[in-house]
Amino acid sequence: TIHRSTACLGRTNQSSTAGYLFRAIHCGARECASIIARSGDAELLSSHLFARRLECQSQSCVTVAPGSRCCATPLRRGNVHELYLVGWHRGVAAGSRARHATDGIDMSETTIVGRIASLLPQRLQDAMYVARMRMRIRSEFAADRRRYARYAAPNDWVVLSAMDPRQIEGQATKDYHRVEKGLTLPNPARPFGRAVHSRLNQVLPALASQPLVSSHVSTAVAALSQWNAGGEVAEDIAPLRRESAALGADVLQEFFESRRSVRDFDGARDVPEDILLKAAELAGHSPSVCNRQGWSLIFATGEATRRMLGHQNGNRGFGETVPVVALISMDTRLFAGSEERNQAWIDGGLFAMTLVWALHGLGLDSCMLNLSLTNEQADQLRSHAELGEYDLPIAMVAIGYGAEGHRVARSPRRPVEQIVEFRH
Asked: Which helix (H) or strand (E) is 327 found in, with range?
């Protein structure tokens, strides 16, 4: 009898052999795991190479050939091979559970899966690795989709009963900013904004607990009515821009080129909180989609710095010298519709970079720390930082004063000719 695990995907075509073979090997079923794989390439999937070198791990193995130590055997010869691995329950550690196919897989030879994989032709090992990577990507994107679909607001449609205060704020901000933008055009239409006017009046009563946003909405409604009635632009909504002097190419060149990522901080030198607050204030001038400003910022100091950096693996070797670490996150409830599904990352990146420039201008050194996390890792960070499920961790920034005599990475820049193209 050949046991076939229901957790495994069986017969498959040649183009997806590696993916299904990986799932079969990885399912880790308690009773057994079956591998049923097809391939037109004998080198890619050699049943003899697999069967003769694999040491059977089963106590109830069905030996097909007399004297055989292995229960894996070709059931059909020719260009198409079918392999069955049966009675694999000894190969699964006692008490272990079947894991999802997109979880990590230990390819080292210290595990049963690693031993199996190491006996396969290199081309098949490579194909299995790629298949695993693609399955993980699909799983992570699926989790991202679920999170965004759960917390994003309806797009330009006010459903107060189904919207939380933050979503209402996002819609209100988007619409009052439409009034502001409309009145800055060279020749604003008149009348304009009928739908915007209607939505702002709908959300205004629901903003009673948010007096600042409510004030912005009220003044925008009044400005829109004033323009449509008499063609007069409200100065508080669309003021004339004040003149600003250019800093000069040499000053800018020095400013931009002198900012470097520092990985050797003076841990004994404290960072004043007022400088951090000023940098955050300046970073708040970053552009964002319809002025929604969905960012939030946590500065961790002292022992909190070590705990926060424990969620980021790019600070090894210098994390213990970092006096302050900033965590930047974005609130997905301020975004709406499928079109804005990636906007949090864009706005968050703009804010992070503006923060770093502000820190540099105030005399502080910094190092951008990426947060390339799985959803599981991001959930752990949310829990530690007391963020909501709707918050997206965007980046961390190590902040402090560089140690005396510290070095910086060369980090050569691409020539401007490689990144710029003029089209006329």
From this structure: strand 324-331
Give the long-range contacts of residues 183-190, CB within 8 A, separation 24 or more: 183/223, 183/227, 183/233, 183/234, 183/237, 183/238, 184/238, 188/227, 188/233, 190/227, 190/228, 190/231
Rounded CA separation 352/393 (Å): 11
Tell me, yes or no, if the pTM score tops 0.85.
no
Rounded to a whole number, what is the distance in angstroms from the first to the last CA of the chain? 73
d(CA 35, CA 75): 12
Q: How buried is residue 277: exposed, middle or buried, by Cβ count under 10 Å (0-12/13-18/19+)?
A: exposed
Please give the Cα distance from 349 to 334 (Å, whole number): 16
SS3 of residue 384 by DSSP: helix
Strand partners of residue 397: 326, 368
CA 416, CA 158: separation in Å to the nearest integer?
46
> What is the rounded distance in angstroms from the CA atom of residue 329 to the CA atom of residue 392?
5
Q: Alpha-carbon distance 37 to 32, whole Å?
A: 16
Closest CA to 23 of 128, 114, 95, 106: 128
Q: Quick one: 272 exposed, middle or buried, by C-beta within 10 A (0-12, 13-18, 19+)?
A: exposed
Q: How many CB atoms lie within 10 A of CB 95?
A: 6
Strands 324-331 and 391-400: antiparallel
Share above pLDDT 90 across residues of the chain, in percent, rounded to a whole number: 67
Residue 42 CA: distances (Å) to CA of 120, 224, 303: 12, 73, 58
Contacts of 413 (CB under 8 A, 6+ apart): none
- The strand pairing partners of 296, in sequence order, are 329
pLDDT in tens, 158-194: 888 899 999 999 999 999 999 999 999 999 999 999 9
CA distance 70 to 82: 15
Is residue 18 within 8 Å of 131, Cβ to Cβ? yes
Residue 336 · residue 395 · CB < 8 Å = no
Residues 79, 40 contacting (CB under 8 angstroms) = yes
Residue 182's SS3 state is helix
Omega of the bond leading into 191 within 30 degrees of 0 (cis):
yes
- Render pLDDT for 190-228 as a digit per residue (tens, 0 to 9): 999 999 999 999 999 999 999 999 999 999 999 999 999
Structure tokens at 330: 């974005």
